[in-house]
Amino acid sequence: MRVSVIGLCGDELAAFNAEPSWGLIEVMAAVGSVVDFAQHRARLFFGKAELTEDTTLADIGAAEGSQLTLVKSFALRIASASHDGIAKLWSATSGECLGTLAGHEGRVMGVALSPDGRLVATSSCDGTARVWSTATGECLRVLRCHDGVVFSAAFSPEGHELLTASGDCTARVHRTASFELVRTLKGHRSVVFSAVFSPDGQQVLSASFDRTAKLWDMATGSCVRTLEGHASQVYAASFAPDGRRAATAGADGTVRVWDLARGECERMLAGQSKAAFSAVFSPDGMQVLAASDGGTVGLWDAATGERLRQVE
Questions:
Q1: In Å, what is the CA distance from 210 to each residue of 19, 60, 73, 246?
Q2: H helices of 196-282, where?
Q3: Where are the WD repeats (predicted)?
Q4: CA-to-CA distance for 214 and 207, rounded, in angstroms?
């Protein structure tokens, strides 16, 4: 029987003769070069029925002249940064190295994937941030907007902006379409080690060696709150999924949970023997996971401060 495969816009991508007993593997083999399996995940549908490795064309009701719809999304990938001056892209499913991003002239301090998976940003001791194509590994732009080490890079939730944090005591916002600088967040008195967008993209949270974290309004670039309480450098700050709380990790060995509306510390999560380098909320916002310089990872209840797990 003759079947065809169309994209989400209705354009025909392939047409071929198939057997009713064919499953996903056979149909994908017939589709051929339409899908780059190293870069994409692919799903096929006939109406609402999905063709899988456990079903056949006959099972989902496909017959002579049927059109299957191909849905593509970028494959799950992991990006890594290294002190050897390169970053790498990896398949999260197979562990295979998909690409090496070389070009920095110093240690790569941070790396971030855009929400749509098309771009990767790197930050480096060479004072630059770079934006790369995940499909080709090509460096699309070198951003020379800071006067010091660029410690981190992060994309906004919609991928329209790129945020960088630097040793020049600032965080800066760039448009990803044009790479133009649109906002400079000034106010910290020392190194800004990391900066992230809120879940709605309307605010930015920065962590600094001046022992504070700051909450910024994206529209105006003004500082809305300064979170004070750590006894030493603050290495990282992150938003809760609802954007109403933040977690900070500091060199004083503590992780703190903050109410952002009031700018007050709700909970201090102690127990790390050495500096806490990162802290993130669970997807439901109920727990906080933190990593420390002592080689331990701790899990806390965000509401009570109780330590639930520790892995060494």
A1: 67, 61, 41, 18
A2: none
A3: 101-142, 143-184, 185-226, 227-268, 269-310
A4: 7
The answer to whether 221 touches 230, Cβ cutoff 8 Å, is no
Distance CA 2, CA 16 (A): 6
Answer whether residue 12 shows pLDDT above 80.
Answer: yes
The two structure tokens encoding residue 130? 């770079």
Q: Please answer whether residues 29 and 23 qualify as being in contact, where contact means their C-beta atoms are separated by less than 8 angstroms.
A: no
What fold characterizes domain 2-74?
Ubiquitin-like (UB roll) (3.10.20)
Q: For the chain, first and last CA: distance in Å? A: 58
Q: Name every residue whose Cβ is closer than 8 Å to that of residue 157 and which is 6 or more positions away in sequence.
A: 115, 197, 199, 200, 201
Q: Give bridge partners of residue 113 from the DSSP assignment.
A: 120
Continuous H helices in 66-175 = none
pLDDT interval class at 9 (50, 70, 90):
confident
Cβ pair 98, 89 in contact under 8 A: yes
Q: Where are the domains of the chain?
A: 2-74, 77-311
pLDDT tens track for 14-73: 899 999 999 988 998 888 766 655 556 778 999 989 998 889 999 999 999 999 998 876
Q: Which residue's entry shows tokens 């910024």? A: 216
The residue-averaged pLDDT of 258-286 equals 91
Which class in CATH covers the domain with range 77-311?
mainly beta
